[in-house]
# Entry
Amino acid sequence: NAQSSSWETVGVDVSAQSIRPDVVVTLEKVSFCGGQISMTWSLRNNATTKQMLPLSNENIEIRDALGTSYTLLESASQPQVIAAEPGSRQSGEAMVAQPVNTNTATLVIVIKKEPFGEATWMVTITQ
# Structure
């Protein structure tokens, strides 16, 4: 919501316990500074089994609208795998050790496999 600067849920009312999703992955923040890209992720586990979000190139793909690919510096991921026990929420940070292409306006971030299959985030770059 642009007026209140807050996120709004669209579609079903996810506050209802009976239709609450088992796993919620949120890309909380993307920062572009110091010649690198950092991403803060959270993993909320409403399921009955442990859930994992690997912060690795095997699981996360990053590219821009111009076709430039970005590679995670996996050794800088903290933690390298976000693990959430049932009923918990955990967070972590992943980093790309290269600047974003100055000619692009959009970054595409894709989770390829875990914890629930493919999901895509479109991040608008403002300069």
The chain has a mean pLDDT of 88. The radius of gyration is 15 Å.
